[in-house]
Amino acid sequence: MQSFNHLHFGQVSAHIKKSFDELLPDPWLREEDGKFRFRSFQKAVVNRRAEYYLKTDPVFYQSETLNHYSGGIPRKYPELRADVASTILLQVVNKFLPLLPDISYNIGIHQIRITTEDRSPGYPAPEGIHQDGFSYIGIYCVGVNNIAGGDTTLISCEEETASRTTFKLNEGDAVIFNDVNYQHYTSAIVPLLPGKGYRDVFVMTFDGEQEPA
Ligand SMILES: [Fe+2]
After folding, report:
1. CA–centroid distance, residue 141 to ligand 1 (Å)
2. The sheet that has 173-178: what strands, in order across it?
3. Which of 10, 57, 111, 120 has the fewest CB atoms below 10 angstroms from its CB?
4. In this predicted model, what pLDDT tens digit does every residue of 48-64 receive, in sequence order?
């Protein structure tokens, strides 16, 4: 898959939606930026035989070159709830994997709620327009509540085309794109009506393992 694919995963189950209420504040946001991100993280391995297993390593690391906002720090997060991880990995196996080369993958699953409140925007990508240093990235939107913004833009890295596409992910929508060929960004969210709002997503990173599945 050289570019990107839009998908619709259908109705989101109640236990997945509710699990976002239990997320803890991301301790790696800068103090002065406030608490607008709540997060869990899970590493897993998955192959085309629909076999997957969870890894116990809770550390997410990106270089400073890749992420000037929070790169260079081994970021440790709570693991996903086991029932949430298995539901999401089934979606990965059924929906994303058929679009990718037929190998095994190391997967990172980031369960993220971005919140906003009057006069406090929430930033899905505080690092700005970026690549994350993986082969592919999937974003699965589980729910949005009372927000404006949150538009995702993919920008081709090819000088000649430099094409870009902007879209909004609503509940049940997903996209998967090639992280080598595209930069990405998701714009800030603000409340649509006065009060609070949030955007709940799973961001999944894919890197091929060496051996074919
Ligand atoms: Fe990203």
Report:
1. 14
2. 4-8, 173-178, 136-145, 196-208, 105-117, 37-46, 52-55
3. 10
4. 787 898 988 778 778 88
